[in-house]
């Protein structure tokens, strides 16, 4: 008998109001949270908008020592993990620590702290060979970002498997998929799983400027992220995190936990094509979708909602639309498809987990979040992308997908649990 | 019954050698592959020694177009993967591209490449940053580049758990084989010997400040005083037992068991979980003992003591031969575990346990039968490899020789 795996707790920090409730209210209202970059002076950059979090570490209950020591993305991870555990009603102290693990996804790890320390060590880039006088004792944690799951494991007393999954922009799906595998196989009873990225920093902005992946749009920053719209011209960089309590079904049921959704299927594939490019036919993403649905024993025409990657780059939106048609057939034209990146931007590795949160909450609330800023669809994107306004609907089966640099394509199927 | 994960190809790039046989010869001889840091003037640095790879000629082995877009760590991974796959002798058309995947561990990203781009950004402006920086830097770069070069479209992954990540990656690849993939390229690599990366590696204070390469990294020695960081890693090509049998591919051995645990927060008063990782990995492999242990060998007194105690608890006092070839070339981050797995498979092949260089005086109360001075010739059918990552990550992996039952899957 295969063990079933369910989500029993959610913690989110996303742009536009912090906390899971504020996040859901934002996306259910079709409101957007992209704005001119305030975290650094972006005046010399091609793209100058971002989805930023007004994160207050004091308000979030992080100690002065944690604030000094921990990278911003790690701070996000810790507070989201606390929220997810509180939300789930799980008492880690009641569990055998050996049966509890942690998996966190991140694309760029401690990029913010790396850049800050780089400027100190190199005297703003003047020195190639540096002086150890200004070396932070925490520098190793910034170089090697497995410090992120370590902090969460310490926080909750986990002594089972702990690791970081770093597959670029699919990290947020792959980290949860990794955790689901471990719960399903019986290795652990529960995992804290999710992803965090805080890449709104000069070096990461420059990376995407260089390949014109982010939008150069300067007017109307709140309308900068336009997936599937004919006028889209790049994604909007963002930060955020989402963490979950991922738990074996019987374990959750016995303690009377509320269940958001079952994680019924997961798969990931490589496109073996290009580090940043996508083939137009979407065949590898379609393969990931097919495998995830087969694992979930879900027929394509049973899907009630598809949470798209929908980054708002021309090549992604077409690639993904082709993948949906390939996997879902005619049902691709009937099922609502939407991108919450239109509202909270693209937080790299984190967004996959934030989108799992959106999918699970969509099931719970019976609401399909919309694609904001979608006024005139690209003729090549001819599916029902739920423009502008959310829709009420009973959602039993939901698919969420991700696509990223390195050629990674991931898909996860969620099912309502009655 | 689930598939076995057979090792049908392997390659290594380490300070000890750039081919499997060169590495094995160096390890058996207990050669010291540690020396003063090269590539920049480290005379002002507190740490002067490292295990760096000499004579790596990426230009000779890689297409020109890959050079400007790749950090040294990715070049090492690409060249080693190509060698390992050549050894696996998979012909075009043998396997469907969706049945072949890649899982690598990496802990330090593309350090030197990204250091140059940080410098360009802050001295010349964002317009000067390379179009390749977005992926040459990130931790998944080796997985992506290897999958592209070899046309592998199956399950992929990239893990970070410092030194433990390499064994976790091999275990994830094995899981994918059990789920239905036929071939998985796996392992781990790290390289961060630009001035910033090297300095960052020293920040936790565990690196040896010794000046003599023969006295710098002496795991389990009474006089241990830190470890020497190195660069490189290994690639293992895993194939499902049924698939290997079908195309008559010879196997170097099987990835038979694995477990990962995490140590409690320092000061919690709770004990290390390394012993549990060992017991779970052996249970996963269905074995009650092994013929040799390749130790993690942190080179830090408290950590060496914990590891010695865990081994003694499981196997009894001096109950199993223990070795640490990495004392000769350093700790390779994500590459360390995979190199030890490869060395363990060679141990099984040649019935000999390589020695632990440099260590001479092991405290008697460690209860360790550490193989010192010279190789020990004995039959080796199973080996346990241990890797611990900074912060409390424990990973334990069991490999088994390809005895008859090995390929039955």
TrEMBL record, chain A:
One BP term from GO: fatty acid elongation
Cellular component, GO annotation: cytosol
Domain of life according to the entry: Bacteria
InterPro entries membership: Beta-ketoacyl_synthase (IPR000794), Ketoacyl_synth_AS (IPR018201), Ketoacyl_synth_C (IPR014031), Ketoacyl_synth_N (IPR014030), PKS_Beta-ketoAc_synthase_dom (IPR020841), Thiolase-like (IPR016039)
Keywords: Acyltransferase, Transferase
Signal peptide range in chain numbering: none
One MF term in the entry's GO annotations: 3-oxoacyl-[acyl-carrier-protein] synthase activity
Domain Ketosynthase family 3 (KS3): 2-416
Entry similarity comment: Belongs to the thiolase-like superfamily. Beta-ketoacyl-ACP synthases family.
PANTHER family xref list: 3-OXOACYL-[ACYL-CARRIER-PROTEIN] SYNTHASE, MITOCHONDRIAL, POLYKETIDE SYNTHASE-RELATED
Alphabetized NCBIfam families for the sequence: PRK07314.1
Protein name, per record: Beta-ketoacyl-[acyl-carrier-protein] synthase family protein
TrEMBL record, chain B:
Region described as Disordered: spans on this chain: 247-272
Keywords: Acyltransferase, Transferase
Cross-referenced CDD domains: CLF
InterPro entries: Beta-ketoacyl_synthase, Ketoacyl_synth_C, Ketoacyl_synth_N, PKS_Beta-ketoAc_synthase_dom, Thiolase-like
Entry keyword Zinc: no
Pfam families linked to this entry: ketoacyl-synt, Ketoacyl-synt_C
GO molecular function, one term: 3-oxoacyl-[acyl-carrier-protein] synthase activity
Biological process, per Gene Ontology: fatty acid biosynthetic process
Ranges for domain Ketosynthase family 3 (KS3): 2-401
Highest taxon above the source species: Bacteria
Family, per entry: Belongs to the thiolase-like superfamily. Beta-ketoacyl-ACP synthases family.
Protein name as it appears in the record: Ketosynthase chain-length factor
Annotated organism of origin: Solihabitans fulvus
Lineage: Bacteria, Bacillati, Actinomycetota, Actinomycetes, Pseudonocardiales
């Amino acid at each position: 008998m295969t063990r079933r795996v369910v989500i029993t707790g959610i913690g989110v920090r996303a742009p536009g109001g912090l906390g899971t409730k504020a996040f859901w209210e934002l996306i259910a209202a079709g409101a957007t949270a992209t704005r001119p970059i305030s975290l650094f002076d972006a005046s010399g950059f091609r793209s100058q908008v971002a989805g930023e979090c007004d994160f207050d570490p004091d308000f979030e209950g992080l100690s002065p020592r944690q604030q000094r020591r921990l990278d911003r993305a790690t701070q996000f991870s810790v507070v989201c993990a606390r929220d997810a555990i509180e939300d789930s009603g799980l008492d880690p102290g009641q569990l055998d620590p050996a049966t509890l693990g942690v998996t966190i996804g991140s694309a760029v790890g401690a990029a913010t702290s790396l850049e800050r320390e780089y400027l100190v060590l190199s005297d703003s880039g003047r020195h190639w060979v540096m002086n150890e006088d200004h070396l932070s004792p925490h520098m190793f944690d910034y170089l090697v970002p497995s410090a992120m799951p370590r902090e969460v494991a310490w926080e909750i007393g986990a002594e089972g498997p702990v690791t970081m999954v770093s597959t670029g922009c699919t990290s947020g799906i792959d980290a949860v998929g990794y955790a689901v595998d471990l719960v399903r196989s019986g290795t652990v009873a529960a995992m804290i799983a999710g992803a965090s990225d805080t890449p709104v920093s000069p070096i990461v902005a420059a990376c995407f400027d260089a390949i014109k992946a982010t939008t150069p749009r300067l007017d109307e920053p709140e309308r900068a992220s336009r997936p599937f719209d004919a006028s889209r011209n790049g994604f909007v960089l963002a930060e955020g995190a989402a963490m979950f309590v991922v738990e074996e079904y019987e374990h959750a049921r016995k303690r009377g936990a509320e269940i958001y959704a079952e994680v019924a299927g997961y798969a990931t594939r490589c496109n073996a094509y290009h580090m940043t490019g996508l083939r137009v036919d979407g065949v590898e993403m379609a393969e990931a979708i097919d495998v995830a649905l087969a694992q979930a024993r879900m027929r394509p025409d049973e899907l009630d909602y598809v949470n798209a990657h929908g980054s708002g780059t021309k090549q992604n939106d077409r690639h993904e639309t082709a993948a949906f048609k390939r996997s879902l057939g005619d049902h691709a034209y009937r099922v609502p498809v939407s991108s919450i990146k239109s509202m909270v931007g693209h937080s790299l590795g984190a967004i996959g987990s934030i989108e799992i949160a959106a999918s699970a909450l969509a099931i719970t609330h019976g609401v399909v979040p919309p694609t904001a800023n979608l006024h005139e669809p690209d003729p090549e994107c001819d599916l029902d992308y739920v423009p502008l306004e959310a829709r009420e609907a009973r959602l039993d089966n939901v698919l969420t997908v991700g696509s990223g640099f390195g050629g990674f394509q991931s898909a996860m199927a969620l099912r309502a649990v009655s | 019954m689930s598939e076995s994960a057979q090792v049908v190809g392997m390659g290594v790039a380490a300070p000890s050698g750039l081919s499997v046989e060169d590495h094995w010869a160096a390890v058996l001889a207990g050669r010291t592959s540690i020396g003063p840091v090269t590539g920049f003037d480290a005379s002002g640095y507190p740490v002067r020694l490292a295990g760096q790879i000499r004579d790596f000629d990426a230009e000779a082995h890689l297409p020109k177009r890959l050079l400007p877009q790749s950090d040294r760590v990715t070049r090492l991974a690409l060249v080693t993967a190509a060698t390992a796959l050549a050894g696996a002798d998979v012909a075009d058309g043998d396997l469907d591209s969706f049945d072949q995947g890649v899982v690598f561990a990496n802990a330090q990203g593309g350090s030197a490449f990204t250091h140059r781009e940080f410098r360009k950004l802050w001295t010349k402006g964002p317009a000067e940053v390379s179009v390749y920086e977005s992926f040459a830097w990130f931790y998944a770069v080796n997985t992506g580049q290897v999958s592209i070069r070899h046309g592998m479209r199956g399950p992929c992954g990239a893990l970070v758990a410092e030194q433990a990540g390499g064994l976790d990656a091999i275990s994830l690849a094995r899981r994918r084989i059990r789920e239905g993939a036929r071939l998985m390229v796996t392992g781990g690599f790290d390289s961060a010997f630009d001035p910033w990366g090297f300095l960052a590696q020293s920040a936790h204070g565990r690196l040896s400040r010794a000046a003599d390469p023969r006295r710098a990294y002496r795991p389990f020695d009474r006089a241990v005083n830190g470890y020497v960081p190195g660069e490189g890693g290994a690639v293992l090509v895993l194939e499902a037992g049924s698939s290997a049998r079908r195309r008559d591919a010879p196997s170097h051995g099987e990835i038979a068991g694995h477990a990962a645990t995490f140590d409690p927060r320092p000061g919690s008063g709770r004990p290390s979980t390394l012993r549990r990782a060992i017991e779970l990995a052996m249970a996963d492999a269905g074995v009650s003992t092994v013929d040799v242990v390749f130790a993690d060998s942190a080179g830090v007194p408290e950590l060496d003591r914990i590891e010695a105690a865990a081994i003694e608890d499981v196997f009894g006092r001096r109950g199993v031969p223990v070795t640490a070839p990495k004392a000769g070339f350093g700790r390779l981050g994500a590459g360390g575990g995979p190199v030890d797995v490869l060395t363990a498979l060679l141990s099984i092949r040649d019935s000999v346990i390589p020695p632990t260089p440099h260590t001479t005086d092991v405290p008697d109360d460690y209860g360790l039968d550490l193989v010192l001075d010279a190789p020990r010739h004995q039959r080796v059918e199973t080996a346990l490899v241990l890797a611990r990552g900074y912060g409390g990550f424990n990973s334990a992996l069991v490999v088994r020789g390809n005895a008859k039952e090995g390929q039955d899957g």
